[in-house]
């Protein structure tokens, strides 16, 4: 008898965690089902919506996968997988719209909130959450040195109920619940986030190697997996591929806020890599601009410690990521916490992007007013905006505008809306102005909107690296 070389002659069929009962499969398209079995094992698949059985054979490593056409049916379905030694039946499978949401703690923030950090509107949302046409899948927080074939902590799809939604991503839930109600079809939302994570952690080794040399150690995985390059991609993204999705929602950036220029490089390549690996084309990628927060003060005007630089970088990523959209949050921050409680408003703005750009609701506005150009007029500067088709709006006096002359010293400025789509900015101490900045600091409450109450982002008309603020900020 040989000892130490025992091998099972017949291995039971194994499915990835995300392929389970209660799942939502992307409707009316080719979806991929996959798993593992014994080497060259013959597998028969019976899908309740198909007239014929599907037969396939595992490869010489025991891997198998198959593409199956789904329909627009709203009826629950079954899928059975059978081999010589085992059978798996998945029940209550729906066809609908599948979205993945990822990022760091603001995406992770559950509907019930964090301790002493609420999610506004959560109690009523939880009370009304029971919905058999809304399904949730949550990925546990685990890091890995190498890419995993399946999630290391098993999970499964769950139907939306007060019990299941309370601990689920608030943004993910609000987005999915409203999308399901508007479209009238089942919706599945996959949540895979980790607080304080960096974008590097969500990027594959192949992509990160093109930017920098790095070594992942066991200690990294134990102590700081959420800030270790590739660690979360390996364990929290790779095992989900190639499960068919419609698009991705992303809320991350605080973990990289001191390196905005690097972030502007990394986020687009992360998106491109995910799209290539999923093989679904340029699926929608809608993301959230980080919200204002004090970050210990506003004294870092000229360096990336000022989070306005990161908000600028995120806005500029729109031009670098095809089929993308951004949710601006300059009016939704919280001075007390980096986790603003208005998560439904964030989800709404992501939803507006999806409705208009993905689902064809062309009357749903989704683009915030954006700086376009400026001209000097007498002792003031006129700032012109695009994406303000119905005009600009402010609830009260415009605030947090600044103006500078050639000396690059910014003064707090008065500002007023003129001609509906422009803002006039001026300060009596700056008689020859050349540049304007808006909301250019860590903590700010946005005051400039379009008439659909989408707020303008932080912006600057200059690219100075040595600008300063006047010592006394009380004069206008």
UniProtKB/TrEMBL annotation:
UniProt entry keywords in alphabetical sequence:
Hydrolase
Q: Name one GO biological process term.
A: carbohydrate metabolic process
Under the GO molecular function aspect, what terms does this record hold?
sialate O-acetylesterase activity
Q: Name one Pfam family in it.
A: SASA
Q: Does the keyword Hydrolase apply?
A: yes
- Residue stretches making up the Sialate O-acetylesterase domain: 97-331
- PANTHER family xrefs: SIALATE O-ACETYLESTERASE
| Protein name in UniProt | 9-O-acetylesterase
């Amino acid at each position: 008898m040989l000892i130490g070389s025992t091998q099972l002659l017949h291995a039971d069929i194994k499915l990835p965690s995300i392929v389970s009962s209660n799942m939502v499969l992307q409707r009316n398209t080719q979806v991929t089902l996959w798993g593992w079995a014994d080497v060259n094992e013959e597998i028969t698949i019976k899908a309740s919506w198909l007239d014929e059985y599907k037969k396939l054979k595992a490869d010489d490593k025991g891997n198998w996968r198959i593409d199956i056409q789904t329909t627009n049916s709203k009826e629950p379905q079954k899928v059975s997988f059978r081999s010589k030694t085992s059978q798996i039946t998945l029940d209550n499978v729906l066809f609908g719209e599948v979205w993945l949401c990822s990022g760091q703690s603001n995406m992770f923030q559950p509907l019930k909130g964090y301790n002493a950090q609420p999610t506004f509107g959560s109690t009523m949302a939880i009370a009304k959450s029971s919905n058999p046409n809304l399904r949730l899948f949550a990925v546990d927080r685990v890091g890995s040195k190498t890419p995993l074939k399946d999630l290391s902590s098993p999970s499964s799809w769950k139907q939306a109920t007060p019990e299941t939604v309370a601990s689920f991503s608030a943004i993910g839930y609000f987005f999915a619940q409203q999308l399901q109600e508007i479209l009238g079809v089942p919706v599945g939302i996959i949540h895979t986030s980790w607080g304080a994570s960096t974008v590097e952690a969500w990027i594959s080794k192949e992509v990160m190697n093109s930017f920098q040399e790095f070594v992942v150690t066991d200690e990294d995985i134990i102590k700081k997996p959420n800030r270790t390059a590739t660690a979360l991609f390996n364990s929290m993204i790779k095992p989900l591929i190639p499960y068919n999705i419609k698009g991705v929602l992303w809320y991350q950036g605080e973990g990289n806020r001191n390196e905005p220029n690097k972030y502007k490089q990394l986020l687009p390549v992360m998106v491109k890599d995910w799209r290539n690996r999923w093989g679904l084309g340029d699926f929608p990628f809608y993301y959230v601009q980080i919200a204002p927060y004090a970050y210990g003060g506003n004294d870092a005007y000229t360096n990336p410690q000022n989070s306005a630089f990161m908000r600028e970088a995120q806005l500029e990523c729109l031009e670098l990521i095809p089929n993308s959209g951004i949710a601006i949050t300059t009016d939704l921050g919280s001075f007390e916490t980096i986790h603003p409680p208005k998560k439904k408003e964030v989800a709404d703005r992501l939803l507006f992007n999806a409705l208009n750009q993905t689902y064809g609701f062309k009357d749903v506005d989704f683009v915030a007013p954006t700086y376009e150009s400026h001209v000097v007029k007498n002792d003031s500067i006129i700032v012109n905006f695009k994406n303000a088709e119905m005009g600009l709006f402010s609830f009260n006096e415009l605030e947090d505008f600044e103006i500078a002359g050639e000396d690059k010293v910014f003064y707090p400025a008065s500002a007023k809306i003129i001609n509906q789509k422009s803002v006039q900015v001026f300060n009596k101490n700056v008689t020859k102005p050349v540049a304007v900045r808006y909301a250019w600091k860590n903590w700010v409450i946005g005051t400039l909107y379009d008439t659909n109450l989408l707020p303008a982002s932080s912006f600057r008309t200059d690219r100075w690296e040595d600008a300063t603020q006047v010592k006394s900020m009380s004069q206008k």
